[in-house]
User: What shape does this take?
Amino acid sequence: MTGHIRIINDPVELVPLLITFNDEKYKQIYELLNRAWMTEAELAAAIGGDHVDECITILKKGNLVEEQWRMPEPGNKPEKEFRATYSKFRANFQCGMSDLSDLLYLSISNDESLRTMVEAVEAELASGNISINDLARKYNVSPVFIRGIAKRSQRMDVKGQGLVFLDRAR
Assistant: This one.
């Protein structure tokens, strides 16, 4: 494992970290990736679950893993393998308590109203409204809340001042 330090300068970057370490399967996957390079198939076999694709997506959004192509045996296709990038953490930001409470809520909540909000934001994004500030005004929430929703979602991410759909093809 490398001795790299994950420095967080934006509080929204806490969302993927909190999601990862608040879920038992995700945490197991991260710990396995801390020890060695592993493919998605190897991870699924090790934890006995189907959470690997979701977890890898969250870890990539949090810049917590690196990937490379594994050279295959002759006649087989190459596969991507992953490894945890960081072994230490440092936070270097300041934010309001209301923003922090929003981010904590987004990271650990299973509230149905949150799911409804995520679906509404995804529908807006699909219709072409990508502006974080416009979405925040429309739903009467803070821009940090909208960015946190995107970091939590399996389908969206933040890019500049807007939201984008993730390319699921890896």
Notes: The longest strand covers residues 65-70. The chain has a mean pLDDT of 90. The radius of gyration is 17 Å.
